């Protein structure tokens, strides 16, 4: 017989990127962040901006606060509101369940009041116009009017899986119109350095394209090499 679990298991947030580290990701495209991590870190493409009309901020960078819920439940997300700090991204796991909303306008409004910069979830949300009214950006898997429960069990502040990635409290979350990326806390400085290199490479490539480049030089060299066989 399985022992009845506690309604909530909570690890109080103890680590957080510095203000300087957080600022280093401000307005950095998610594609730059992924490139700086050599292709890693992106959440599943099903997790996308809730609103595409420009009525909510299109870019967010902030520390994760995790809330892991079972299917159709939001108890951990509600409990996480008590531990949010200004600028946190509330990462609300829904176990990928699509049968009801993982958050709505009331939860978004409370998260905004608690200082959240955004909500990211692997479930759908509801009350689109109400969420837009709060001004809180969100990334989710879609919309549904169906309501969740809040019975638990759930986990707050602990590592969890969401969108194919491991996310822990204190990791950096960067989100924009392309999707969501997680930067592990231990790699933040490394990735910041990598972003500088990616930015320089992108600027150089932009200049070449603006100058008329149509085919990358290495592709031209490849096409002229013995590594390519031409057939009639």
How many helices? 7
Q: Biggest β-sheet: count, sense, barrel?
A: 9 strands, mixed
**Helix coverage percent of residues?**
25-40%
Q: Which CATH class is shown?
A: Alpha Beta
How would you classify the quaternary structure? Answer: single chain
User: Structural class, from helix and strand content?
Assistant: alpha/beta
Question: End-to-end span in angstroms?
Answer: 70 Å
- How large is the share of residues in beta strands? 15-25%
The CATH superfamily name is: Ribonuclease E inhibitor RraA/RraA-like
Average pLDDT, all residues: 97
| Radius of gyration from CA coordinates | 20 Å
One letter per element, helices H and strands E, the order comes to EHHEEHEHEHEEEEEEHH
Q: Any idea how many domains?
A: 1
């Amino acid at each position: 017989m399985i022992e009845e679990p506690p309604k909530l298991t909570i690890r109080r947030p103890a680590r957080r990127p510095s203000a300087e580290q957080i600022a280093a990701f401000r307005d950095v495209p998610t594609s730059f962040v992924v490139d700086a991590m050599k292709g890693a870190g992106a959440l599943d493409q099903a997790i996308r901006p809730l609103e595409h009309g420009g009525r909510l901020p299109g870019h967010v960078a902030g520390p994760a606060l995790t809330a892991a819920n079972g299917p159709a439940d939001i108890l951990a997300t509600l409990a996480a509101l008590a531990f949010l700090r200004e600028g946190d991204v509330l990462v609300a796991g829904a176990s990928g369940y699509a049968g009801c909303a993982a958050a709505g306008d009331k939860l978004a409004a409370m998260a905004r009041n608690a200082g959240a910069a955004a909500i990211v979830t692997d479930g759908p949300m509801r009350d689109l116009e109400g969420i837009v009214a709060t001004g809180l950006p969100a990334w989710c898997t879609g919309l549904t009017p169906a309501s969740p429960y809040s019975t638990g069990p759930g986990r707050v502040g602990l590592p969890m899986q969401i969108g194919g990635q491991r996310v822990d409290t204190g990791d950096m979350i960067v989100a924009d119109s392309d999707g969501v990326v997680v930067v592990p806390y231990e790699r933040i400085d490394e990735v910041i350095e990598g972003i500088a290199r990616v930015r320089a490479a992108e600027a150089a490539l932009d200049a070449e394209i603006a100058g008329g480049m149509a085919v990358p030089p290495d592709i031209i060299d490849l096409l002229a090499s013995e590594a390519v066989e031409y057939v009639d």
